[in-house]
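Example (one chain per record):
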Amino acid sequence: MSRLLCLSRSHMYTKCKYSVQKSEPFVCLLTSRGRVRDELMKRLISSSRRAVLTPYNSRHPLFWLLGIGTGFVLALGLKYRDSASERCECDAQKTLTVSRYSGAIDTSRGLLQRIKQDEVGAPGMVIGVSVDGSHVWCEGVGYADLENRVPCGPDTVMRIASISKPLTAAAVARLWEDGKIDLDAPVQRYVPEFPQKQFDGEDVTITPRMILSHLSGIRHYEKDVKKVREDKEKAKRLLKPPEKKEEKSLDENKEKLEKAEDSSAKNKEAKGGQKRKKEFEQEEYYLKDNFENVTQALDLFKDDPLVFRPGSTFLYSTHAYTLLSAVVERTAGQRFLDHMMKMFRELGMLNTIPDENDPIIYNRSRFYRFNKKGRVVNCPYVDNSYKWAGGGFLSTVGDLLVFGNALLYSYQMAELKNTDGLLPGFLKPHTAKAIWAPVDKTDASWDKDGLYAQGWLVVEKQQKYGQCRSRRHYVSHTGSAVGASSVLLVLPSESGHTPPQGVVVTIITNMQSVGLNTTALKIAQEFDKARDEEHVSS
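Predicted structure:
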C-alpha cells in the first residue's frame, strides 16, 4: 500500500515535450495529498506495531480509508496527466505560431502606435490578424472605457459601421443563390412602398444590383442635390490636365504644377480629415428616433429626388442599403434583423449583433469624438435603427476574421480543380467571384487603386513596368460612424493550396474619423511576407 501511494506521485506529474518543467497547477494539490499520505503512513506504522494489542476489526476502517484515498489520488492524477498534456501541447503550438510572426507583430504594433498616439489619439482599438484561416494575433490597445479605465481586449465589442454593408451583401448573395432575388428586377417588385422614381422627367429603374455597387442615384446623408452634383463635378475637373496658355512658358507651367502637387501632398490628409468632419455635421448621423422596421426607415429618403441617373454615376449611399434591407426582408420572409442573426449563427459570428441601446451587451465599448477644442469627449446618444444594413451592427475582431475567411474560402474554391474531401463554402464559388469583381463607373474614397464591386472595394493585381510597383489583389471595406472607425481587409494568396490561403486583417476603434485602410494593408503585407519566409524555410 505504501509503495502504491509513493507511485501515485510520479503519475501525477506530467512532462511536456515542449518544456522540461513539470506541470505547476497540480503541485499544490500534490503537496497537500503528500502530507495526508505521510500522516496516514505514520498512523499505519504505529498501528502495525500495536498489532498484538489491537483487534483486526478496529484497524479495518483505517485500511478502507487508506484504499479509497489512494484510488482517488491515482484516478485524479491520471486524468490530469492527459488533460494537462493536451493543454500544454496546445499552448506550445500557440507559442510557436506567435514566435513565427513575432517580427510582423512588432512592426504592426508600431503602426498601430502611430494611430493611437502620434496621429489621431484614438482612446482604444483592437486588431485581429489571421493567416491561412488561423487567427495568429488579436490584441487590444488603449481603453474601451476611458472613464472607468476598462482596457480593450480581443473580446471588446465595437461599432463596425459600414462593414455592415459586406455583411448585407453576403445575405443578398445567399438569397440570389436560392433564386429568391432577381438582382436586375426593379426594387418595387419586392418593396412596393418605394415610389417609382424619375430623372429628368423620365421614369427610371433602380435594381438591387445597382444598390450593391452604389449606382442607384439615391442620396447619402447630404440632402442638397445641387451641392452633391457640384462636388462630383469639381472632383472630375481636378482629374483633367490643366490647359496650357500660349503666353506662359513650359518652365513656368512645370514650376506651378510642382508647387501644386507639393501643396496637395502636404494637405491631402488634412483635407481628408476636414471632409470627414464635415460629413459628421450631417444631422442624420445623430438620429435618435427608433424605427420599428426597415420599411418604416424608408420614409427618411424615399420621396427625395435622385442625385444621378441610376447606373450612371457612383454615389456612396447608406440609405440605399436600407432599401436593400427591405428587399431582403420581403424575399426572406422574415424581419431583416432576424435573417441576419440567423446568418451570423450559421457563420459562427456569435458576437455580431445589432447596435441596440437597451440590451445589456457584455464587453461593449464606449464611443468617443474630439470636440472643437480638440479634447476627447463622449459621443452623443444615437439610434441606428434607420441603417441596420449600411452601418448598424456591432462586432468583435474575431467575428470579422471569421467572416473574411469564410468569403476567402468560397472565393478560392473556384480556383481548385479537385475539391474532393473539402466542405462547400458559405457562398458558391461563382457567387464569391461575382461579388469581388470590380464594377465599371465606380470608385471609393478610401483607396484610389480600387473599384467598388458588390459590397466590397476591389483592387486588382497589376504591374505596369519591370522592377517597379507590383500591386497585389485584395479586397477591403472601411467604416466610419458616430464614435467608431473600422476596416476589414482580405489579401488572398496565389499558392493554390487548400483554402483559405491568405491574410485577413481587421481593426476597430472607438474614435470616429480615423483612416485605417492604409495601415491595414501595410500590416497584411508584413504578415504575408512572414508567411512566405516561413514557407520557404520549411
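Caption: The first strand starts at residue 15 and ends at 16.
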